[in-house]
Amino acid sequence: MMLRALLALAVAGVPAIAAAQPAATPVAAPDPARQAAAERLLKQMGVEATLDRTFIQLAPIFAKAVIGEMASNPASKGIIDTLNSRAPENHDRMIAILSQEFMVAIKRQYPAYMARAATEYAAAFTTDELNAIAAFYASGAGAKALRLMPEIQARMGAAGRELGGVAGADAGKHAFERIRQEMLPEDRNKNS
Predict the structure, then answer these.
(1) pLDDT by residue (tens digit) across 52-66?
(2) CA distances (Å), origin 175, targets 121, 162, 186, 189
(3) Distance CA 141, CA 145 (A)
(4) What is the pLDDT of residues 117-135, one digit of tens each?
(5) Packing angle of the helix pair 110-124, 47-72 (nearest 10 deg)
């Protein structure tokens, strides 16, 4: 019963998140040869593996957001509090379960995503262009690029997180100084 309530609350939050995103305008389906060339290119590029790497990193963030939302919602706060009070490791277990279920659910969306991506590529490139891109990725330099891109992207992602942490700390410091000055004028005189 408790698990069913957790899942219902977690799923209830998904449409709100999806509704906040602008809807993508569908592209008209191109000719079958161009669509097939786009599908082959995406497979060659390893797009599904890229999605896996991306969503594996996002799954715990999603899980923590769901748990945080549930902990702040009066209807589900009791469940979260009960689970957390029973054992300290329950919080991490909830994150793991939500992360795993998110990955299962997102992988079910891959076929639709890949079809949409192929349609987008097919709309943007001619069949000859798609074949030329595929030929590049089949060449020595292209194959090397495909092989090394995940590693380079991982290093750049780590660098981006580091830069984001520094920028976030700096922005937070300056933002709160400004907030105090602009929104709490009575504090301005105390700190002068």
Answers:
(1) 999 999 999 999 999
(2) 41, 20, 17, 18
(3) 6
(4) 999 999 999 999 999 999 9
(5) 130
